Amino acid sequence: MTVGSQVKQTLASLKGTQATLRIYAEQSQHEQTRVLFHEAVEAVDEILGELEDRLRTLEFSEPQYKGN
User: Fold this and answer.
1) Fewer Cβ atoms within 10 Å of its own Cβ: the N or the C terminal residue of the chain?
2) What is the distance between the alpha carbons of residues 14 and 9, in angstroms, rounded to a whole number?
3) C-alpha atoms less than 13 angstroms from C-alpha of 22 in its C-beta half-sphere
4) Does residue 44 contact residue 12 with C-beta atoms inside 8 Å?
5) Percent of the chain with pLDDT over 70
6) Displacement of CA 50 from its chain's centroid (Å)
7) Angle of the 3-27 helix axis to the 31-61 helix axis, nearest 10
8) Could you tell me the pTM of the whole model?
9) 64: Cβ–Cβ under 8 A, 6 or more apart, which residues?
């Protein structure tokens, strides 16, 4: 598995995790718990942004990773 493929797989997993956290936040009955889940969603969003930037850099500098 190439580095590009691993980054793409990680991105897909994190997006799934983020979706699950959003569901938990919506279903939570306690305000503190809801806030914690929303904070986790925001943290994952930042990580996703960094990984997407990393993937773009990787694809630009290593064209063989593009489109895998």
Assistant:
1) N
2) 9
3) 9
4) no
5) 93
6) 9
7) 160
8) 0.83
9) 2, 4
